[in-house]
Structures are given as structure tokens and as C-alpha cells.
Design a protein that fits this description.
With 198 residues, this protein is an alpha/beta fold. The chain has a single domain, classed as P-loop containing nucleotide triphosphate hydrolases (Rossmann fold, 3-Layer(aba) Sandwich). Helices cover 56% and strands 12% of the residues. It is built from nine helices and five strands. It has a five-stranded parallel sheet with strand order 2-3-1-4-5, sandwiched between helices. It is globular and about 50 Å long.
Amino acid sequence: MGRVPFVGLTGGLGAGKSSALQVLERLGAATLSTDAVVHELYASPELRDLVVARWGAGVAPDGVVDRAAVAARAFAEPDERAWLEREIWPRVGARVAAWREQVAAREPAPVAAVVETPLLFEAGMEGLYDATVAVVADEQVRATRAAARGHVGADERASRQLPQEEKARRATYTVANSGTLDELERQLSDVLAKLTVR
């Protein structure tokens, strides 16, 4: 079998990236969430000590990083956000690169290696991937989902992201996720089929 296609998955808040990632895994793709990687990094003493040195012990009560407290500090000032991104993104990139190597060695090979990256285009990371997939959904559906998940700093996060129409325009493939999980699965199955013949 040829090289495993390396795919970046993105979408706006509440578009359903996590659902899409789960569906892709069911369909035979190896998957990784950069949000999960960031979560792991915050659990590491290295990053915990960095954010405490920057913002004080209040962001890590009892030695555990409070992501909401970090978000409040980071989103308050562009310089603070830039500092945090400089610390996190290279570490995430290294973790993704190591994961990709592991996936490439798997037998049997997965149909694709998919990395969920919310700020894929904003961070200029699209060039790393063989293809990109944008998950989009109706605004009302997205707002309902984001509210249900209780996103911290949803407005600030949304303001950092490109409009979903722009993500869709830049992506290799776009899937609509305002309907059922079955509909999402059919679309993603079609995308995987196209990837394997590219």
C-alpha cells in the first residue's frame, strides 16, 4: 500500500469537528485531536511551570492547570495570547510529527492519518497536510452546540478564527454537518475514498 494520506481537519466552534473525527476513526482512519494534545501538555510539569511563572499560581490551583483561568489570561491581551501560542504550538507540532511517524509504521496501514486542528488555516499549517477538510454547519446549529458544551471564552475564540465560509473556501474538501450522523458519515466516507485515489 502507498503512503498514508495526512489530513488536517478543521471547522468553527460548534461545527462538529469532534464528531467528524470519531466518524473518521470508525471508517478506518488514525486520528489525533490537537485539543487533546494541548490537554496533555497542560498536564505536564514543564508547561504547568511556564504558565505559573507567567501568570501566577492562580492558573494552577493545587498544581493542576485550570484551562479556563489560562484562557482568561491569554485572551485578555494579544501579547499574552502570542506568548502562549509560541510555547504551545511548537510542542504540539512535535507531538503531531511523532504521531505521524508511528501511524506510518502501522500494519495494516490506516486509510488516512487525520489531525483535528481548530486553527489550522489561522496558524498557517495547511502546507503540512496532503489535504484539508473543513466541517461546516448552520450558524444556529453551531450556536446551540457551542452553548451546550459551555465553551470558555467562546466569543474570543470565535474572533480568532476565520469565518467558516473562508475555511471552506481554503479547504480541499468541505463537509456539511447540520444533519444526522449518518449524513456526516456518508460525506466523510466519500472524502476518504477520494483521498485514497489521489
